[in-house]
Amino acid sequence: MKWTIFLLAGLVLLSIGAAIGYRELGKSCASADVEHSEHAHDEAKKTGNTEGLTVRVCEVGLVGAFAERVGFGGAVPVVKPKVGSAEHKEHQEAAKAIEHGHKEGEADEEELVSLSPDQIREFKIKTETAAEGPVTIHIERPAEVRFNGNRVAHVVPRVPGVVSRVEVSEGESIEQGQLMAILESRELADAKANYLAVVERRKLASEALVREERLWKQKVSAEKEYLTARTELAEADIRIATAEQKLRALGLPARAIKTLSLNDENLTEYRIVTPQSGIVTERHLTLGEAVGIEREVFIVADLSTVWIDVTIYPRDVASIKPGQRVEIELGGGDPVSGKIEFVTPEVKEATRTAVARVVVDNASGRLRPGMFVTAQVQISQELAPVRVPRSAVQRQDNKSVVYVEHEGAFAPRPVKLGRENHNFVEVVAGLQPGETYVSSGGFVLKAQLAKESFGEGHGH
Predict the structure, then answer these.
(1) CA-CA distance, 116 to 97, in Å (whole number)?
(2) pLDDT in tens, 406-435
(3) What's the pTM value of the predicted model, to 2 decimals?
(4) Whose CA is closest to 211, among 185, 187, 230?
(5) In a 10 Å sphere around its CB, with 0-12 CB exposed, 13-18 middle and 19+ buried, how is residue 265 labelled?
(6) Cβ-based neighbour number of residue 282 at 10 Å
(7) Which residues in 173-257 belong to E strands, given as ranges?
(8) Buried b or exposed e, range 326-335, using 16+ CB within 10 angstroms
């Protein structure tokens, strides 16, 4: 029983020692080179030294090396240890990475586009030096062109009457004071007749006063009669002034009133003239029509300036203020610009929007009331370290690139973009100040690279 316990303890100690030895042998084999081990194997056969045995153990294992030593069987085939294979895999990956780096360098060289000076001129390629510049931040909102309410005249007759002549038509340009139409008005004839009557009565009252004054001074008449004559003359003056004001209220100028006479052939003629220069946008009368004083018969608009009413959403109200610059895009041609003159203080209940009004010069006549346009409202302006035109940025391989001049050629360079507007864009990374880049014509260079990808070459 005692010997059995000693035997088991010995076997346990032997197993622990074998495990420790095998671990140390694994570390030694991991640091050994496979090609060196094969060379050491050949030397071990010749010299039989301990070092050769150790190397052989790493190659074929402990049992295989012992079998070779005692002469059992032939040579045991070499099996490369797994520890060595992991290191070999790392070397392979490093080699692949280096090879991939070489391929990327070759791709960069292949992406260079070389053009002759003649080709650069032909393709209209322009270059600029990267530099700082302001980037204006805009918000885009819908807008509508409207008549300038301060320059629209609604022409309404001062008296009712029947149309006897019409001198202008819709769309016609007219000058201030120009005759537009003539009405035959009984009311005007009555007003003129009343004026002429009071004028005659005033003459009689004046003559009576002169006579009574002379008689009173001669002690022929009483003072009371003289004072009565003076009162009647004063009342006649008041009636004349009242009648004259009525005629002026009906649109007759002062000079026309002073020249009125009982000999006038037609006291019923009422002349409608335009109060301002402009274009007749509406006409609401025809020959022989009876018109009243309730509605306009003409609308005349001066289109030298117009209003642009920009729709402002509630979230924009805090950032929209009078004085801000606005660019109006017309869908064709150059945009027009102006400043916000007025922002409505309330939000309309029906649309839940406010209005920012821009007064724009329209001497060219491009803006027509009723047109829908797009307004770019300038919110702020900030300085960008590097600013390029939008035409300089191209999309290539789902990236934003700028073509940079490199040793007489052009190469696409990925860039990171920042703030932008319709004209310029900020380059946050990828382009340094002082570098020369293609500001216009980058699409041609992009096409050249696309041709190369199909095997057609650069074409130079």
Answers:
(1) 36
(2) 777 888 899 999 888 778 899 989 899 999
(3) 0.56
(4) 230
(5) exposed
(6) 13
(7) 173-174, 179-184
(8) bbbbeeeeee
